Amino acid sequence: MASSQQEAASAYWKENVRLMITLLIIWFAVSYGLGIILAPVLNSVAIAGYPLGFWFAQQGSIYAFIALIFTYVVKMNALDRKYDVHEE
Amino acid sequence: MDLTLTTYLIVGATFALYIGIAIWAKAGSTGEFYVAGKGVNPIANGMATAADWMSAASFISMAGLIAFLGYDASVYLMGWTGGYVLLALLLAPYLRKFGKFTVPEFIGDRFYSKPARVIAVIALLVASITYVIGQMRGIGVAFSRFLETSYEIGLFAGMGIVFIYAVFGGMKGITYTQIAQYCIMIFAYTIPAIFISLAITGNPLPQLGLGGTVENGGYVLDTLDNILVDLGFSQYTVMKGTTLNMFFLTMSLMIGTAGLPHVIIRFFTVPRVRDARLSAGWTLVFIAILYTTAPAVGAMSFYNLINTVQPGEIGAEEGNLAYENVPEWFSRWEETGLLGFEDKNGDGRIQYYNDGNEAFAATAASYGWEGNELTVDRDIMVMANPEIAQLPNWVIALTVAGGLAAALSTAAGLLMAISSAVSHDLIKGVFKPDISEKGELLSARLAMAGAIVVAGYLGLNPPGFAAQVVALAFGLAASSLFPVLMLGIFNRRMNSAGAMAGMLSGLSFTLVYVFIYKGWLFIPGTNMLPDTPEHWVLGIGPQSIGAVGAIINVVVATLVARATQPPPAHIQELVESIRVPRAS
Fold it and tell me: Residue B520, by phi and psi: left (phi above 0), alpha (psi -120 to 50) or beta?
């Protein structure tokens, strides 16, 4: 019994870490990738009056950060239930 | 009604509200004093955290910073928001599950070491005290500029208000005041922004207006790019610094944000682990309302200012505004010293251009310009906005109340972090572990009162290096606290030797690098290299070095932990238990 509980705990943790890494890759790609490193290239495209790289740096990345945290909240709540470690 | 009277009424009403909340939210136990009884709704905590986080600098100075730096100011926008992703995914839920009162307490328990706890207290105190000086100054300046009092009286009034709700209410009083302060500052920020966006682009949403078009049909940003180039400046939307420095500066600000104790402890106040995650999301929503508006405020008020002084064709004699025709707000802000005009070529007209640009010098000379004649303080971009947009006096007064709310809410949060570290980590944790609940509550209140007095004293006598040290606060939090907190959760094998070696190496590396460029202990003249980009190692400035310090911290901690004994079994169990939400 104890060992199956341990297995469940470690499977829960692995899924959590995988989700976290996926979200952090997006976090990095949007801000550092599109907002900084690729910004000079993206600036040659303009969407709705914004040079695209500039938009990612001053608007888009912030919206993406919000979306990332709420995705994490929803997915973690589901994960907590799946492994029956959720709170009352 | 007279502007000063209106300002007094509105600021007075907000202060009365804060005192009312203080009377209602008195703390009766250490749990209420330190973490508001862990009963704060996650959305409410999101608002409180947003107010806690957004300081006088965010409210008053950031839009101006964006106006003058253009694209390069994106580091602050991304850095001060992206940190919340790290906080939500890497720290907040786990530290909430740990369920104690302070950040050093986690470090002390997790690394079963009092010295580690004391190092964490020192890092916390240095980061928080330097931060609070800026808030105190902001309060004093706001009073002296808008309420026609002296700087000292303004500072005492601010200290008095914080004293009432922080000493009696602790975290509970601070939380509910911060919620009120958030509402005041967000209205004060967005109302003028909506009007200026409507006036310039016809779009009421500043976030969309910034992509909109101006009167002549050109896009706001294109137009700004063109005018600036014509005046010898760089384009607004283009990178002026180096990619590497921007990268590390953004990273340092993000990691530093996630590691600042006064922000982390706000997540100890929600009831459950999943509330901590959710609360981080709401925090960022509430911050983003201001942070996505700020680029529009910066660009549009800058556009407005340039258009005011340069209404006609650049280079034409009639193109510049004659000084005798300046609008009323211009004269008003000249009196405060935030705008300055010096007629260098004696033509009675205002020339604003980049006289540091050698390539542009010949063009300027052919126009008969003999140097830039207008000096603009960046704070004006927010504070003068309502007047430039010709909004009624109550909106101007609301902006003052908003600036004060921003400074007060951040000051209170920092004072909370400072006083809980002193009373809970030093007095109870190290010197007098057998102190009673009542005794600790009393010492917490005394520590809060003491912290307010110290902050007030430093606000009255700011050390010359105060401004320099604020940049260091992020570097310290990034290089010392964040990495060990993260390792304490994600690396079960991390032990006390590793954590201490990591904290000390990250901290000392960052300090030394900063001191080399800023002077040892910030004493002027003792810097070993000039603080200019060509002398920075790989072009990484002292403000950006915290991220490198964090990497060094992680590497050293991991190597030392591997070479020494693993942590005892009960610590490994502690790590297991903070990783799952449900209490076992």
Answer: beta
Q: Which residues of B touch A36 (CB under 8 A)?
A: 74, 243, 246-247, 250
What residue in A sits closest to B223 (Cα-Cα)? Answer: A49
Strands B374-376 and B339-341: antiparallel
Q: How would you write the pLDDT of chain B (584 residues) with one tens digit per residue?
A: 688 899 999 999 999 999 999 888 888 889 998 999 899 999 999 999 999 999 888 898 889 999 999 999 999 999 999 999 999 999 999 999 998 899 999 999 999 999 999 999 998 998 888 888 888 888 888 887 778 788 888 889 889 988 888 898 899 999 999 999 999 999 999 999 999 999 899 999 999 999 988 888 889 998 999 999 999 999 999 988 889 999 999 999 999 999 999 999 999 999 999 999 999 999 999 999 999 999 999 999 999 889 888 888 888 878 899 998 898 888 888 887 788 999 998 888 999 999 888 889 888 888 989 999 999 888 888 888 888 778 888 888 999 899 999 999 999 999 999 999 998 998 888 888 888 989 999 999 999 999 999 989 988 887 666 556 666 788 888 999 999 999 999 999 999 999 999 999 999 999 898 888 877 777 777 888 887 888 888 878 888 899 999 999 999 999 999 999 999 999 999 999 999 998 86
Q: Which of A66, A29, A87, A15 minimizes the C-alpha distance to B292?
A: A66
Residue B540 domain-assigned (yes or no): no
Please give the C-alpha separations between residue B347 and each of B20, B123, B254, B343, in angstroms, as whole numbers.
56, 55, 48, 7
Interchain CB distance below 8 Å, A76 and B77: no
For residue A74, is it within any domain? Answer: yes
Q: How far apart, in whole angstroms, are the C-alpha atoms of residue B40 and residue B271?
A: 7
Q: How many domains does chain B have?
A: 1
- Give the closest-approach CA distance of B371 to chain A in angstroms: 31
Between positions 79 and 108 of B, the ones with CB within 8 A of A are 81-82, 84-85, 88-90, 93
Nearest chain B residue to A74, by CA = B278
Helices B74-86 and B243-259: angle between axes, nearest 10 degrees: 40
Residues of A at the B interface, defined by Cβ within 8 angstroms = 9, 12-13, 16-17, 20, 23-24, 27, 31-32, 35-37, 39-40, 43, 46-51, 54-55, 57-59, 61-63, 65-66, 68-70, 72-73, 76-77, 80, 85-87
8 Å CB contact of B580 and A72: no
Q: Nearest CA to CA, how far is B83 from chain A (Å)?
A: 9
Q: B570 to chain A, minimum CA–CA distance in Å?
A: 16
What is the value of pTM for the model shown?
Answer: 0.93
The tally of domains found in chain A comes to 1
Using the structure block, give the residue that is written with the tokens 């019994």. A1
Judge: B250–A49 Cβ closer than 8 Å, yes or no: no
Question: Is residue B336 situated within a structural domain?
Answer: yes
Q: Is residue B520 part of a domain?
A: no
Inside any domain, residue B382:
yes
Instruction: Answer whether residue A73 is part of any domain.
Output: yes
A51: in domain: yes
Count CB atoms within 10 A of the CB of residue B349.
21
Domain that holds residue B330: 301-386
Range of the domain at A15: 2-82
How far apart (Å, rounded) are the C-alpha atoms in residues B31 and B23?
18
The answer to whether the CB atoms of B88 and A69 lie below 8 A apart is: yes
What the block records as the tokens of B316 is 């034409």
